[in-house]
Structures are given as structure tokens and as C-alpha cells.
Input
Amino acid sequence: MNRGNLDLRLLGYFFRTAQTGNITRAAAELNVAQPTLSKALKLLEDQVGTPLLERHAHGITLTPIGARLAEHAAVVVAQVRDAAAEMAQLQTGQGGNVHIGAGPSWMRRMLPEAITRVVAQRPSLMVEVHTGFDESLLGMLAKGALDFVVAERPLGGESGNLEFHFLTSDDLIVVGRASHPLAGRDRVPAIDALSSAWALPPRDTLARRKLDGRAISLGHTPPQANVVSTSLSFLLTHAGQADTLIYTTRSHLLTPEGGNLVEIDVPELVTNRQAGLIFRSPGLLTPAARVIADALIEECAADPRN
Output
């Protein structure tokens, strides 16, 4: 038994098995014989000192300790992959592949400008941008599928093995069309807004959780959304066509979809939103990812609101 020292090759085998949920399929993807993989998994269990998976007719199930080790393995595998990519980039100079996760607001401004500038200087660079709300992007980051995410700062206690670099700040506000019954009123009571029709992102998104938390802190029931969507563009467009409220940043009033929208003055429901670069600790980025991150930092320094 060799507790305290884990073989990285065995850890990689275990991670692929955990991903596929099937030893036979994992062995085929790893291009090793199934008995070899089974032996490797047993050796890793000996190193850890406890079972990591349970075998059954249709595949495998991770034990609680195995599930936790799989989370660590995702980070380790990603960092090993990033190290190999960085070595290749240092040898070849300008190339490389960068995978970025971006919240909806970043797809319209700041990030496109930064990437355009960098790609013009490094035409051999390959950049892939994934969009979505916070939870899905952070999940991809934790699994090593992304180099970094640019999105709202995670709530305290939820950052895990992540680091945050501040870029912009804005307020989350109540928004509706100019003809909405609450538009034009001063200091609308929170209860009046909360009892109106709403269109909101899913409950696990930070904006939705902040709105719900603010309502509860005021002693009110969180709003019940008549429409739920993961598309911010849809929510903005929908709110411009119906007496429906949404919860978004002031900067979105400046977008084409926000042209028909106004801020509904509900001071009790205003919360602050800080956004920035989120990456895996200890903050190692490949040269290609770093050059895009630096360009984005420069863009936001000139206009720190998004």
C-alpha cells in the first residue's frame, strides 16, 4: 500500500472510467486490454486505501470517495493537458487552442473585441467560445473543458478550487417595457414588482438566486416566473413585447434587444454584480489563453461595466 502517492497514469485511467461509467468502454477508449485496466484500477484503490468503484452488470458506480477523487482527477488531467499544450505553444510560438466560457453579456461586447484583436495578431490561434449561464460554465471549467470563464463572480463559499480576477461591475435591476404599469413610478414597493409577471433564467443561475434572496430577506415570496429561458436575448425581447419584468444589468438597456426597455425603479431589489475572469487554481493559463485574458483585461480597464 502506498498511500499519499498516486500514480498519474492510474489516475488518468480511473478518470476515463469514471467518465464512461463502463470498464469495457473505457478500456477501448484508452486502447488497453480490459484486464489491464481492471488491474490498474485495483492498484489505484490500493494506493488510496479504499474502494473507488462498484462493479455491476451494466457498468460501474463510483463510491463517495471515488466520486470525490474523480473531481480531483478532472483538475489534474486538465492541468497535465494544459502543461503539454503550453510546452507545444512555447516551441511553435504563435499557435495554440483556447477554450473560453462566457456569460451572455460578454458575447456582445468586450470579449469579441479582445478575441478579434488577438486573432488579428496571431492568425494561427484557434479559439472556441462556449456561452451559457454561470453554473453550466463553471461545471465545464472544473472538468477541464475550458481554459477560463468570464462571468459573474461566484457567491462566497462556492468558488472551490477557482480563482477570480475582477473586470467589471454593474447593478442588477428590475427591467420592463416603457408601457409597463410600473414604468415611470418612483420608488416602486418591492411587493408590487414581485407580484407582477416575470420572465427569468433558471433558478440555479446567480441572478435568479440573488433576486430570490433579496425577496426573502425583505420577508416576501420570490417571484414566480411565467416564462423561463436560458437565453438572455429571448428574455430581453420578450420583456419588450409584454407586461413582463426581468432582472438584468443596466448595461443591457444599451443593447439592441434592450432598446424598448426601461429600468423599473425598485430600490429594494437592486443588487450589485461583479464579473471577471474565473480560472482553476493555482491560476495556470497556457500562453495562448493568457494573451486573450490580458487583452480582455485591457478592454475592461477602459470601460469597467458590462
In short: The chain has three domains: 8-74, 94-168+274-302, 170-272. The chain has a mean pLDDT of 88.
